[in-house]
Design goal:
The protein is α/β, with parallel strands linked by helices. It has 20 helices and 8 strands. Bound molecules: iron/sulfur cluster. The site of iron/sulfur cluster (SF4) has 12 residues, from helix 8.
């Protein structure tokens, strides 16, 4: 058994080097802009109207990406109490509380990762979309008050069943209404051709990211959920740029080669799972090791799929952005979400589903109103629910989760 285990190991993805460079460029460019005052810096929620901001000459920073860094570096818990002391409950989004707490303490993992950067890039404007949750608006408003910069955004729909023209026109009008404030802050006149180009690049990035994720439909899968949450960085922070497009062309060709060569990310893949809900950022390595040891591949997730924006159309930029940012899983009704998970089960030939109940993110935890049971009954695919959190590891029990996951995989073997 010891010899067998020795053979199992993480398969390094060669494109990681290029991905790290894309991320480094992102942070160094932002740092230089914030220090010099040009170009202007916009902070944007992760599924906010980033294309409009790029078209208007802003460099775009995503606080949720920073929240994920705080989680992955396991530094979040040292900051959450600072935000609690400022009046933000330990029960709300731990991205928010760890990010605000880190700001209050004047610390950031960016400074440890990138020499010469000492702080997060100060914003000239904050732009949110409440399509994912209300927390992002509260989060950005806090910075708006603290730093004295404009905080504007889009008030989205929630629990959307079918996305209709009424939804699209309402959100599209709100995105257009952002333009005058953005012109005033950036000093640039809005140019529709620049917006079309940003939407074109975002669409291309989205297509490549989707194709990248879909390589995991192959058996064995060349890519795991734990790879994807790392390699999605450019799709989050650099969508709308040529750099992101170049990166995913590169990554995709490597994964296609793995498929051609029959190389699986998990040696001797026995089972294929779907991850529903937020990652547990501080436990990525431990969980991926557990699945590797169990010869089980987590092949796909709702989370990584959330940066696929199929509706983007450069010829109709405002309406297509409105549609893309409303069609997202997190915005939709339970019925639409269950249909979507059903399609993913088929596409990725999934044996089981892990529902992560992230205590501080009810918005992206879908096992509180019976969905996990309905999916199992309707699709015949078993599930397990694990309790945890995206960033606050005090809400995660290692022992309990490992026991549950091992038992679940054993149960799959019995089927
Ligand atoms: S969706 Fe969840 S994790 Fe993301 S910002 Fe909202 S509450 Fe936080």
């Amino acid at each position: 058994m010891a010899d067998e285990k020795k053979k199992l190991g993480f398969k390094k993805i060669a494109a990681t080097r290029m991905m790290k460079q894309v991320m480094a460029n992102h942070f160094y460019d932002l740092d230089a802009a914030a220090k010099s005052g040009a170009p202007k810096v916009a902070w944007c929620t992760s599924v906010g109207p980033a294309e409009l901001l790029r078209a208007m000459g802003f460099l775009v920073y995503f606080p949720e990406n920073h929240g994920a860094m705080l989680g992955a570096t396991r530094t979040a818990m040292g900051y959450i109490s600072q935000a609690n002391a400022a009046g933000y409950s330990p029960d709300i989004c731990s991205y928010l509380t760890s990010d605000v707490g880190a700001f209050l303490k004047g610390e950031t993992p960016i400074s440890k990762a990138y020499d010469g950067i000492t702080e997060v890039p100060k914003p000239d404007v904050l732009v949110y979309n409440t399509n994912q949750c209300r927390d992002v608006k509260d989060w950005f408003m806090w910075y708006g008050r603290r730093l004295g910069v404009p905080c504007i955004g889009v008030e989205s729909f929630c629990n959307v069943d079918e996305v209709t023209e009424t939804h699209v026109k309402t959100i599209s009008a709100q995105i257009k209404n952002l333009v005058p404030t953005l012109e005033a802050v950036s000093g640039e006149k809005f140019d529709i051709d620049k917006l079309k180009e940003a939407v074109r690049l975002s669409r291309r990035c989205s297509e490549l990211w989707e194709e990248t994720l879909k390589t995991s439909a192959a058996t064995p899968s060349p890519f795991t959920f734990f790879d994807a949450v790392i390699h999605m960085g450019p799709a989050v922070v650099a969508r709308g740029t040529q750099e992101a497009v170049d990166y995913y062309e590169h990554l995709l060709s490597e994964l296609k080669q793995r498929i051609t060569d029959g190389v699986g990310a998990v040696e001797g893949e026995r089972f294929r799972l779907y991850w529903e809900g937020m990652p547990v950022w501080g436990k990525l390595r431990d969980l991926s090791t557990l699945f590797l040891d169990q010869q089980t591949c987590v092949v796909a997730s709702t989370y990584c799929n959330s940066w696929i924006f199929a509706a983007f159309d450069p010829d109709n930029p405002f309406d297509s952005m409105a549609r893309a940012y409303t069609e997202l899983f997190i915005v939709r009704s339970d019925r639409a979400k269950e249909d979507y998970i059903g399609r993913m089960i088929e596409c990725y030939d999934v044996d089981g589903i892990i529902f992560h109940d992230a205590k501080t993110c009810p918005n992206n935890s879908n096992c509180r109103y019976g969905m996990h049971r309905r999916v199992t009954e309707d699709k015949g695919v078993p599930h397990v629910v694990i309790n945890g959190d995206l960033n606050d590891l005090r809400l995660y029990s290692e022992e309990q989760t490992v026991t549950q996951l091992e038992a679940f995989i054993e149960q799959l073997g019995g089927r």
